[in-house]
Amino acid sequence: MASAAFGTVFTPHMARRSWTRPTSEGTDGWGELRIEPYGPLLLDPATSVLHYAQEVFEGLKAYAHADGSVWTFRPEANAARLDASARRMAMPCLPEGAFTEAIEALVRVDRDAVPSEADSSLYLRPFMFASEPFLGVRPSDAVEFLVIASPVGSYFSGGVKPVSIWVESEYARAGRGGTGSAKCGGNYAASMLPQVLAAERGFDQVLYLDAENLEELGGMNVFVVMDDGSIHTPTLSGSILPGITRDSLLTLARARGIDVIERRIVLSELAECLAAGRVREMFACGTAAVVTPIGRLAGEGFDVVVGDGAPGALTMSLREELTDIQYGRRPDPRGWLHRLV
Ligand SMILES: *Cc1c(COP(=O)(O)O)cnc(C)c1O
Predict the structure, then answer these.
(1) Ligand 1 centre from 248 Cα, in Å?
(2) Residue of the nearest CA to atom 1 in ligand 1?
(3) pLDDT band at 157 (very low <50, low <70, confident <90, very high)
(4) What is the CATH number of domain 13-152?
(5) 85 CB near ligand 1 (under 6 Å)
(6) Residue pair 130/139 in contact by the 8 Å Cβ criterion
């Protein structure tokens, strides 16, 4: 299963919990957690999510350790982010602890589907959508929360390869006051066309701007390593998704004594630094691909190789430190791991 393309094979079960807007005080509207066979959902064509995209999701992984135990990474951060995304989309928050409880129940029943090959994991996709059949424009009175799981192999079969990035100056991913910091499907819908156009130009991924400032990729945060060894990443501006990988890497880098700077990164300044050879490395990060080296950056009027075009040393050592913690190969002093089985 781990050799299948990302997100195409699923485990035999799914976790599910339904919500209806409470009509009396003292209830939160959430039903019991159910574990059901994985399978299609039957939806009325008027189901609200199909029309107005009231939907949020999460992504995290379960990792098999050498002793047979199974762990996940910072699930309380994903739970908090799902709540924040849900709030932005006028959807209900889950009851306290319900997020992790659903993941635990699903991974326990589908324990045998957690792959144990090197760099493989069980990708967990919690999501919540407006399920009321209703075409009026208002928050749905019914919501479904589900968790599905997909065994995934190493994102990079045949070794980590640097990606090429097109800096997008026409299309934006998010705007001020918009939904950029919520993990919602609509942000991804808006990123499909720029991604297709970038692929036609021969690039792997798109980097979005807020006017002239760097923001992030379609589904990953971005970092720059300067020639003085300092690490820079755009400040969470409100339109950037607060990545848990981003936060974890900032913490690991600071613990190494590296100068870590969250700031506005102006594209013209970055392009000048790249041209002057002052940028040593760039990388993107997110749960699915962990840490991905950026080998080439181009946009209107510039096209430069980052560093020597090969994966950077700091990029790869941060990647190794993070994955070593996740797979139980080195100590976890911050208690980031949570045992599932
Ligand atoms: C999920 C996501 C990320 C990465 O977040 P992680 O918690 O590190 O997986 C970055 N950007 C966007 C737009 C995302 O949706």
Answers:
(1) 12
(2) 219
(3) confident
(4) 3.30.470.10
(5) no
(6) yes
